[in-house]
Design a protein that fits this description.
By secondary structure, this protein is of the alpha+beta class. It is globular, with a radius of gyration of 18 Å.
Length: 172
């Protein structure tokens, strides 16, 4: 009886995430590699590039046989585990990670005098609807920290104030 497919986290060699993702996709494995656009400066030019949101990490929807096959890729180092247990990513987290790429490139922040830093909020609109996070920032900047529990990482996003409400039910 084949094992069910689950989302696993793989650690890759430095700067190999995109190449590994391409090879796995070509091999028929569903891969999630959330990317972000950053502006890189060199002495003679500037350029926007796509880099992994979590450098060194790659998510793949695999059963046990496919997991072992993924480990055969030269760019993959190991399956991420915590305390001897393989990390398993919930589908809701994958949906949220994929939604990150759908966020507008430039979002104008709004003052949040009514929502102090440290307040727990839920995203009520936009591509991250349903995500929970914690507010950080000042009246000039509004950031939402979202914890991706399965990989013990957090994402810091700048989002419009009208996308969130306090988890207690009061509007942000």
């Amino acid at each position: 009886m084949p094992h069910a497919r689950v989302w696993r986290v793989f650690y890759t060699r430095p700067r190999n995430e995109k190449k590994v993702a391409e090879r796995l996709n070509d091999g028929g494995i569903d891969v999630c590699l959330p990317l972000r656009t950053v502006l890189r400066r060199w002495s003679d030019r500037k350029r926007k590039i796509q880099e992994p949101l979590f450098p060194g990490y790659l998510f793949a929807h695999v059963d046990e046989r496919e997991r072992l096959a993924v480990l055969q890729d030269d760019g993959v180092v190991t399956t991420v585990s915590f305390g001897g247990t393989l990390a398993e990513v919930r589908n809701t987290e994958i949906v949220m990670l994929r939604a990150l790429e759908g966020l507008p490139k430039s979002v104008e922040a709004r003052a949040l005098d009514a929502v102090p830093p440290g307040t727990e909020v839920i995203v009520t609109t936009g591509p991250l609807k349903g995500a929970r996070g914690t507010v950080e920032g000042s009246p000039k900047a509004f950031y939402l920290f979202i914890l991706i529990e399965s990989v013990r990482q957090a994402i810091r996003l700048e989002v419009p104030a009208d996308w969130v409400m306090r988890t207690g039910g009061k509007a942000g």
